[in-house]
Design a protein that fits this description.
Chain B: Residues 269-381, 729-843 form the ABC3 transporter permease C-terminal domain. The complex is a heterodimer of chains A (229) and B (852). Chain A is α/β, with parallel strands linked by helices and 229 residues long. Chain A is built from seven helices and ten strands. A six-stranded mixed β-sheet of chain A has the order 6-7-8-3-9-10. Chain A has a four-stranded antiparallel β-sheet with strand order 2-1-4-5, with helices on one face. In chain A, a hairpin with a 2-residue loop joins strand 9 and strand 10 (219-220). Chain B is built from 28 helices and 21 strands. Chain B has a six-stranded mixed beta barrel with strand order 2-3-8-5-7-6. A six-stranded mixed β-barrel of chain B has the order 12-14-19-16-18-17.
Chain lengths: 229, 852
Amino acid sequence: MSKILNVDRLRKSYSSGGNDLTVLEGISFAVPSGTTFAIVGPSGSGKTTLLGLCAGLDTPDSGTVEVCGQDLGSLTEDQRAALRNEKVGFIFQNFQLLPTLTALENVSVPLELQGFRGAGETARTLLQKVGLADRTHHYPSQLSGGEQQRVALARAFANRPEILFADEPTGNLDGHTGQRVVDLLFDLNQEAGTTLVIVTHDMELARRCDRILRLQGGRMLEPEEPSKP
Amino acid sequence: MKQNSVNGKRAGISWLFRMAWRDGRAGLRRLALFMSSIVLGIGALVSIQNFGNTLEDTIAGQSRELMGADFLIDSDRPANEVVQQLMDSLGGPASREVSFLSMALFPGKEGSKLIRVRALEGEYPLYGKLVSRPLAASAAYQGEGRALVDATLMVQFGLQPGDSIKIGNKVFPVGGSLLEAPGNTVVSTSVAPAVWIPLRDLEATGLVQTGSRLEYAYYFRAREGQDLERLYDQLDPLLDAEEADMDLHTDTSQRLGRRFENVGRFLKLVAFIALLLGCLGIASSVQLYMKEKRAFVAILKCLGASRRQTFFIFLIQVTAIGLAGGILGSVLGLLLQEVFSGVAADFLPVELAWAIHWGPVLTGMGLGVVMAVLFGLLPLLSSWLVSPLSVLRIGQPDPVLSRWLTGAVLVVVAAGIWAVAAGLLQDPLRALWFVAATMAAFLVLGGMAWGGMRLIRRYFPHSWGYEARQALLNLFRPNNQTLVLVVAIGIGTFLISTLYFTQDMLLARARLEDNTPSANLILLDVQAGQQEGVAGIMRPMGLPLVENIPIVTMRLHQISGRNVDDLRRDSTSTINGWILNHEFRVTYRDTLIASERLVAGEWVPRFVETTGPIPISLSDNVARDAQVGVGDTLVFNVQGVLMDTRVASIREVDWGRLQLNFSVVFPTGVLEAAPRFHVMTTDAPEEAVSARFQQELVRAYPNVSVLDIRQLLGVVGDLLQKLSWVIRFMAFFSILTGFIVLLGAVRTSRFQRIRESVLLRTLGASSRQLLKITALEYCFLGAIGSLMGVLLALAGTQLLAYGLFEVSFVPSAIPFLVVFPLISLAVLGIGLLNSRAVLRSPPLEVLRREGV
């Protein structure tokens, strides 16, 4: 199986109060296409930083990240943005919907950025799939947390991404709603055949993935195959 | 991956506009507030420009009617043979006029009045209207030997057609009142109203004699298709040599246009300051707006939008705000120009037709866009630096533009302001000064505000009660707009206070002149033999003879050994032309007067030698224009007698004083025997005595004219009041803009205030305490801003007073007692009104409603 995400000897540090703080060190792994992959670890272990680097939202001090065969280090910021637009989907803990746009418009944006003509129709179909057909013209502030995350799900799949990054997708939801959203995420993912990379500290959720990467103090522990429930 | 697909360019321009609209529509009310801060400034500018264009068009379209002819030839002496021949070659004048100032008496009525006599012959005006009541009087006055009297004068003295007016020795029956005549304005006729008489009756008045200042004018109608400019080029040099002058109808309108251009320019600058103030509001609002949009930008970038795309979305929004502000401002400006028309009506010899000029309207719209983008540029550019990483939980620092980029943008902003100012003033150099001065004022106010805040922080009043301390601390909260608000309030207050202080300074100057022997009646054209008689009328009425100044008229014959005629012909001569043709009114005395200061040479009080050139004193401007210095020789032609003189001293003369000043002063002992006339001054403390004296004087000496300073000051005061009204009106725009900026700031920081209030409430603060904190915060803001404005105005005016006017003055208390508290109160009012919802509602309701 081809590798859609290749991470090699990644290092990232931040300067804080004049001191260098190493957040990630010697991270290397690969994610085969079409699989699900969880990154777990306690708070401050560097999970989100790793996700940001993998998605090309940030640049490493050293090491390489390849997404869909493209070395992110060789791309400019705008080229990385274009790559995200075409190949990558996102789900965030805080939903990160555009507050001034309706649900339908939020889902349309990735397609519109591609210059896709039927963006509205596709977005409507996606909203229907996540059970929000009657909420298309609502603004994020008019939706509940679960509904907002479902809009975010629809948006994440709108551009038919090859890889989807989810950062604590249930972190801001109650248990029941979180469960519904996760089910939906896995269903849609299976249907679309997308590679899923989830950052979470929820081991329940991590165990639903094909592989788990454990981080601790910025270093990776051995990857493991979860025992699926 | 194909290159074009990683450039993120596939979403077209229409998508940018769509996104700008989608994002903007939710905050329309807030965006409208940004916009309103520039509406007033643009409105003021458009109104002045549109009014200026209307005026220009009207004047240009009616230039013949303004002059009453196609062109005229005028001189202060009757046409000599050469001039007569030239006029004959033009087919002869259609009309002739001799005009002069004189006193008029009204037999059977009390009082006398200084008037401008216009003795006319022929069909003047050749163009335009001469409207009288009764209507037929204007056509008949020449034939019937009657006088047409200015309508205001008729009312003032209760005259009716058929009554009499005595000018010099002749009594004219009044034919009718003059309602409209070419070139007449309320202002121009208020000092010396016009009385028209037939030219053939002039001789009978007995007023044409030595020393009479008569002006001769010959009005012409051009031949069909005649090239007037060419005619002017041909004739003017010839006429100049004969001390006559040619004026085309277009010159009159241009002169008039220029006069109003200066006032317009000044008003435009005041309006421009209001606009700049509004722009500061835009800059501060856009900065806060972009800060709030950081998450929006980050999400978009995360979803694949390029830096350029996100930048353009907000650029489009700011441009649209600017355009909307420009359109609204232009509409407001068109409505406002009525105000200027009303004020200007008294100054204008034409009736204005209200019209919309697309130039100013388009300028207004363009200005809205340009200024909004210029001032929004710096915060807009910060969107470029927002990292998509902000969408994750990692705390991202505020994007900071590099120093060189910030510097480059500031240079672009300054250049933009300069370009706009240069466009408005049509004068790049003056615009540069204006921009420098404005920046200095803004910087000084900004610096004062910054320094003041530092001082407060450094010497924080820890002993104050909790509410006062919290209110003071609020001024330093993150994202505070304290500096911008203090500058906005300060500039508005500065403008208003400057007006008051300038008024004080001018009054102080007038008082300074009071120290010299004061006089309120100036008697002109007193013949040498009439001095005793005039003094004889003064004495029994208890009127003092304050001054008795002899005047001898003369012309230059030679300058430093060269004949004036040669100099006139010499095309390489750089001596100013007016010197060669001017009839100098010269006095002689043995002392300097208060308005003079010796700058070179030696003052010679008396000439005792019998030989050698006479030592005279020149004013510095005459010495400069004649290109002579101390020791150079001049020969004057004193009514046929040539007098050798030598420049013994040069004086600096303060021409601005309401006092008789002279450019050439002779020592005593030379001109006493020359044909001369006198100007005498006296002081009549009561108006009734003044009127009685004028009447008796005119009866005894009809050739003597009286300039009533009290009346003149009344007229000047009226004018100044009107002008200062307009200026105050414009300054009011700045204050209002300052309030709008304040309103914008209060509303944009609402979210933050609500958070603070809710937090304080949750911790147990009462409504009363919250109200006190909010009220005190605005009190501090208003007080700091307005106090700095007043202080800066005071410092500026004092500098002007010492540096330029050389007076010291005690500033009036109005800015301190009225302007300062009023503006502070207004700031408090605006602040509290907009915080009502925050203060009244329970915390949970507020949290829900505001979506905190």
